[in-house]
Automatic annotation (TrEMBL):
Location relative to the cell: Cytoplasm
Family statement drawn from the similarity comment of this UniProt entry: Belongs to the FtsA/MreB family.
InterPro entries with a match to the protein in the record: ATPase_NBD, MreB, MreB_MamK-like
CDD domains recorded: ASKHA_NBD_MreB-like (cd10225)
Source species of the chain: Ligilactobacillus ceti DSM 22408
UniProt record, GO biological process: cell morphogenesis; regulation of cell shape
Gene Ontology terms, MF aspect: ATP binding
Protein name: Cell shape-determining protein MreB
Binding site for ATP: 11-13, 155-157, 203-206, 283-286
Upper classification of the organism: Bacteria, Bacillati, Bacillota, Bacilli, Lactobacillales
The protein's role, per its UniProt record: Forms membrane-associated dynamic filaments that are essential for cell shape determination. Acts by regulating cell wall synthesis and cell elongation, and thus cell shape. A feedback loop between cell geometry and MreB localization may maintain elongated cell shape by targeting cell wall growth to regions of negative cell wall curvature.
Keyword Coiled coil: no
UniProt keyword annotations, A-Z: ATP-binding, Cell shape, Cytoplasm, Nucleotide-binding
Amino acid sequence: MAKDIGIDLGTANVLINVQGKGIVLNEPSVVAIDTKSERVLAVGSEAYKMVGRTPNNIRAIRPLKDGVIADFDMTEQMLSYFIKKLNVKGFMSKPNILICCPTNTTDIEQKAIRQAAEKSGGGKVYLEEEPKVAAVGAGLDIFQPHGNMVIDIGGGTSDIAILSLGDIVASSSVKVAGDKLNSDIINYVRQNYNLHIGEHTAERIKIEIGTVLKGHRQKEMNVRGRGIMDGLPKTIILTSDEVEEAVHDTMLAIIVATKEVLGIIPPEIAADIIDRGIVLTGGGALLDGIDELFSNHLKVPVVISTTPLNDVANGTGMLLEHIINSGKK
Ligand SMILES: Nc1ncnc2c1ncn2[C@@H]1O[C@H](COP(=O)(O)OP(=O)(O)OP(=O)(O)O)[C@@H](O)[C@H]1O
């Protein structure tokens, strides 16, 4: 018998949850191709190692951008590779697959994701909106008649949703999340220190010394890059408060989007959110000071999920089981 699988098809990482086993695959969403023959040379972790280090005839690409499929063929090849690697196909049967997508994915994009999964060897393919899956994975009982709110801050998108009775009551998906914070840091260092730093350095700065709340963290880091004026290698010292300054506007954009969602919900659900609070998930939930920042602006309790990076993948498995057991869809 084929084993059912849930896929968190993320901008940064792909996580796969296999029925009865849990999360068995967690690899970067990267494909390396030979530019002449267009042949796929490596996928996932192997391809990620090649980013920034490829000779002219090899290109490492990210098939997903801003939470949606930017390159359909490559997404399909990446999914096929991962599904084959897991060896979940049965002798005669194909695995049911649940994939999650951001809330405002268009019909055409949804069709593209579904086709990619079918062509990759999937049997019945279900699509679920990412915040719903994330909420289930974070342990919220979304099937009860009360409002639950979840904010999933990933690499490409921040998905904000209020759920009740198993469905989304109000939601928004904005294309500002972890990747944008990295580019904010790169721009800040360029403008204030005339220093060009790479994507990986910005990611380290964000995680190791970054904060989204002024004064909440007091760390500093020696940051190395290439001087813009003379082209020579240079080191500067960056502080947590400077990172806060760099990412301030982007964090405000996520808060404004959250306020807009809160502004359109029925009063009973608003009362539930005051009681139950907001759950933060996705890699961005690990940003220093984020719970305090959100509760200061939104005036409701904010809780960080205990497993923010795995919630969507865990939720795919739980929801797939729920769908199959209830004979739904
Ligand atoms: N400790 C941390 N502090 C701050 N940010 C972090 C931390 N760990 C991971 N991140 C960020 O979380 C993001 C990835 O999160 P996640 O895996 O939830 O996204 P994704 O599902 O791949 O993206 P999307 O949902 O947009 O498709 C990256 O931008 C990464 O830099």
